[in-house]
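Thread: quick sanity check before group meeting

JM: Hey all, I'm pulling together slides for Thursday and realized we never actually wrote out the predicted structure for the chain we discussed last week. Dropping the sequence here so it's in one place. If anyone has concerns about the input, flag it before I start.
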Amino acid sequence: MKIVIINSGSSSIKYQLIDMPANEVICSGMIDRIGLEVSNLSYVTQSAKIEESLPIANHKIGLKKIAQLLMDEKIGVIKSTKEIEAVGHRVVHGGSAFSDTVVINEAVKAKIKQLIELAPLHNPANLEGIIVAEEIFSDAKQIAVFDTAFHQTIPVVAHKYAVPNFLLTENKVRVYGFHGTSHKYVSENAIQFLKDNKYTNTSKIITIHLGNGCSMTAVKDGKSIDHTLGFAPMNGLIMGTRSGDVDQSVIFYLVKALGYTVDEVNTMLQKQSGMLGLTGFSDLRDIESNAEKGNADCELALAMNAYRIKKFIGSYAAVLNGIDAIVFTAGIGENSSYIRKLVCTDMDYFGLELDHAKNEIRSKEMREINTPNSRTKILVIPTNEEIEIANQVYNLILN
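JM (edit): ok, ran it. Output follows.
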């Protein structure tokens, strides 16, 4: 069964064509820096590899470009869209309506659209991917896998806000959690690693997903029990353009004292803050490059980013009553030795001892970067949300 996986992020599109149930990746690639002056595109098969830089203004243009490559006469991997039996879509926010993988129909699309207000950087891109895929792969089943599903196990003591009760019972205002497919995938790999190394029969793991969007999860025995993102994907860690945690009083001050409208504040916190607001750059590669050249704003922003992560490691160590491993994943977590070093420095109280030589090694493989004496494992596990989505799509079709 050939399944196309479309993972539309806030500024990127990852895609894979996977033959199930063998989990054989026939084709993979991504487009990142969407909406910036120059975007990067990659397309990889067993016999072809393309990497190019070109302007891609939005997700619709990007998705159409991917479809053209899949069916290209020379380097394509399918001759007809009829070969595709299903298209699996990552959808960020399922609200209280979706806790499981579902076949997409008009009602599902309408609900995803309603939830745009809660995930304005993601659900529009997710919905656009669905609409374009319905046009291109018209014979395939369109299936949604929700980021929020993995976090349904977060207990009420952690997912309920200290606001009037009716906001939860009537309006479903609560912590939902995000990046669930990534946190689920890497935590399962970490658990298997610990078992293979006879490290522990139980597991207390902190997964750290660092990309343009960032989040952390406390995972106990395979279940999410706390998470940095909440009702919508904008609190917690400092992100590419999102502020992360901010005192609510700041919002009231911006509106009442400085005259901003609510929409202007929302735009500021969602699209003009985070690393972009601190440095003028939203891409960590640009920030690290400028920090190395002595840019004080970039140096401070990186230090702030790591400091916020360290605070949550401490918080989740308390929630878990210990840590067996921390896991770095996603674009920044997998590739930025700079951030990993900042996070793991002066963390010996938590048993974290980084091997600096191992930390500098770049690899697409799962790896351990702690010293032999480190009480807590420090793992880098490349996420594969697409494989996780494909497994959930395949299981839904079979059942």
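AS: nice. The chain has 15 helices and 14 strands. The two ends are 14 Å apart (CA to CA).
JM: adding both to the slides.
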